[in-house]
Amino acid sequence: MSAERSKRGASQWAVAWRRFRRNKSGLVGSSIVVFFVLVAVFGPFLSPYPARSYLPLYEGDAGTSPSFKHPFGVEDSGIDVFSETIQSTKNDLYVGLAATIITTLIGVAVGALAGYFKGIVSDVLLGVTQIFFVIPVLLLILLFARVFATFVFHGWGLTLIVLILAFFGWSSIAFIVRGETLKLKEMEFIQAARSLGAGSYRLLFRHIVPNILSPVIVVATLNIAGFILTEVVVSFLGFGDANTSTWGLLLNEGFPFVRTSWWVSVFPGLAVVFCVLGFNLMGDGLSDALNPRLRE
Amino acid sequence: MSERILEISNLRTYFFTEAGVVKALDGMSLEVYKGQAVGLVGESGSGKSVTAQSVLRIVPRPGRIVDGSIRFDGEDLLSKSEGDMRKLRGPKMAIVFQDPTTSLNPVYTVEKQLTDILTLHKDLTKEEASKRALALLERVGIPEPEQRLKAYPHELSGGMKQRIAIARALSCEPVLLFADEPTTNLDVTIQAQVLELLKQLQKELNMTMIMITHDMGIIADMTERVTVLYAGKVMEVADTVTLFKSPKHPYTEALMKAVPSVKQTRALEVIPGNIPNLIEPPVGCVFHPRCKYAKDVCMKQEPALEKVTEGHYAACHFWRELKLEGRA
Fold first, then answer.
1. Which residues of A touch B168 (CB under 8 A)?
2. Percent of chain A beyond pLDDT 90?
């Protein structure tokens, strides 16, 4: 060991970061993600028109193809597609991130408990996961979205969609965490911590869960893409919130006119493709970087 | 003789597996006096590690202590609640495991591994705990301890990791330390260093140590008394010197013959066969299928642990008749 070694040792995160930096597709993915995040944060200030604004209609530009004034063209109804695509970014990222955060928290807690304490929690979790595997979840999401938006949570907008996605989306993380917990709890360092007086919750949340973070981060990153995509589907099918700008809503509005006004569908469609691609590439890169079996 | 710190009697720890009930410990007894270094010797599967797990009450599922008693420092451990046991683990008793690579948590620095235990049991601030961690590293002979505190386990060598595992086990100054094959996964030169360290610490801290090993060499070097275990039962108990000079159980003799020696010119004698299936252990003496002196009675009747001389016990029908070879 050389004397120049940094004072702080190479934590698994430092090692992972070093490996991630060498991964081209991972870097491309994270650059795309950074780009979308910047658009989400600063886009609303830079976009030429406000969200869901019909102003171009009064300017006589309704239905025009892409031009200098309207780079992505204008909907027949008069909405500027460029502005709307930008305005949608923050909403779509919000859905992806919020649903991921909720599902990750629930998934880690449920999975860890189910893996550590065998019994009812574990059985229920397995049952629920298997049910989610076999039933067409999308149909239920659509049903819930329509029913709740109409009757119970009227006016909750995208947050309702987030909650529904989260409700149906936590089991994959829980399943992974449960498996990892089952594996880790037999490891000697867990027994060592136990032999020195650590109790169940300390073992679980201070010794086991930190060891599971790598796969959780990877799956969570991939989940962001998944949730964004599902939200696009829900909105495209007309089950989303019609008052909030999303790429899916644009696709929904553009679909009837795709032969004449192709630009209404193509640009938000590209935004979806690149955004999802970005998160997926980043997730794959992280997966390689965080894989403990690939030591340099 | 000083006070008795640990007294295990007739302990039965069974594992309830799908294949059947594995009798890992089947009527095991052990007495340890304060400040002693005691050896538990036997092959893999003889119940050495399960003994330590039973005393600490950390027997992994599906294992369970089904019978017997464990008295530690005058208290009955088996009637204690899990919460009370937790307070004993660390400050009263601790264990050093076999493989330092897997017994340290890979995501924490050395400092965190040590301070975690310290703050759990002692009312220390973070700074005080860090100071103690540093002192512990110095104590177990780690060079450049300040830097090592910030290191992660994967950056350290096996010997260094085992020193840290020892430091962690000693962090709350336990009265009783189990060393569960602490050198099996280290290379030979490091083995000697780690054993020397354990010996020295045991003396300095006046700690009671139970050395679990299959290596008769380590037993000779480290311990004052030995219990020879086979298939979850005690075969022989004696002072280390007595055991080596005049073993009274064929299994003890066989274990000693299986150790190579520098002067040895004959071929190494191995013990034929394997440790028996503990779901259905042999009837009679558990060792009879592998014993070269076995007679009819050995297959029918289980020998009792009989007193040979004061402090020397053997569980063999023929300990009086057999002329067993020791090793000086």
1. 192, 196
2. 45
